[in-house]
Recover the amino acids of this structure.
């Protein structure tokens, strides 16, 4: 069973609470500052450490601070606090979970022609890595902060894949589910992607914005156990009870 939720560097909400307050993650411009001072990344780590399950973070737009700070600094801070690369994967019980970094390409490189942090991009190296990850013949769940309709096309002319669409068209048969965030509204995207594509509502607005998904061990099927709580097209979800089988709250 996997608990999926949208992560932003904001204060923690109480169950059922709405309307979070933004928390600026960057108070310094070098890694030493983060290591010596209280900051939002450290707050998030303390929250994750209190959860009774492993947590695999996805690098998000709010984890970067362009143009005020470099993409390289945000990657270093991410590695320092979460002890994982800005893009990574985990294999578990016959499934592969791929945590892409949709801010790794040139749209987040200030000063380049392609710079435009309103859209995501993956970069040549990661696109090649994604092709390898998806080509392993394992049922796969792909995570990306930016929804796939909000990422750059033809972002690189080098390497085997110009963009994420090319990766998925050539190696997407193994992808069973795509999960993203960013847009602050629950969205079930049309079937023009290689797999069902869900955009999650943000926990900075509603702490009920997460999904509990059960994956068949060694298979390629899954069940979203609390899909009925979602308020589609909104940033909110109903409060459900998770004592045994998830069910609507009173």
């Amino acid at each position: 069973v996997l608990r999926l939720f949208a992560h932003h560097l904001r204060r923690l909400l109480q169950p059922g609470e709405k309307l979070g307050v933004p928390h600026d993650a960057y108070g310094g411009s070098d890694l030493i500052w983060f290591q010596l001072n209280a900051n939002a990344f450290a707050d998030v780590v303390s929250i994750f450490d209190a959860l009774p399950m492993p947590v695999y973070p996805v690098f998000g737009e709010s984890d970067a601070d362009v143009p005020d700070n470099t993409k390289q600094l945000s990657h270093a801070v991410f590695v320092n606090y979460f002890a994982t690369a800005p893009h990574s994967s985990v294999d578990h019980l016959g499934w592969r979970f791929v945590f892409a970094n949709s801010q790794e390409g040139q749209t987040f490189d200030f000063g380049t022609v392609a710079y435009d942090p309103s859209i995501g991009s993956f970069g040549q190296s990661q696109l090649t890595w994604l092709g390898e990850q998806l080509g392993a013949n394992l049922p796969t769940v792909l995570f990306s902060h930016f929804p796939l309709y909000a990422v750059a096309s033809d972002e690189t002319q080098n390497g085997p894949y110009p963009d994420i669409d090319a990766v998925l068209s050539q190696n997407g048969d193994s992808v069973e589910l795509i999960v993203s965030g960013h847009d602050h509204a629950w969205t079930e995207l049309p079937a023009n992607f290689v797999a069902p594509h869900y955009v999650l509502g943000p926990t900075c607005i509603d702490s009920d914005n997460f999904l509990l998904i059960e994956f068949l061990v060694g298979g390629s099927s899954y069940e979203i156990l609390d899909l009925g709580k979602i308020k589609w097209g909104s940033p909110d979800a109903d409060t459900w009870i998770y004592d045994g089988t998830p069910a609507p709250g009173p």
Summary: Confidence is low (pLDDT under 50) at residues 5-23. The helical segments are 31-36, 40-49, 71-82, 124-134, 164-171. The first strand starts at residue 2 and ends at 5.
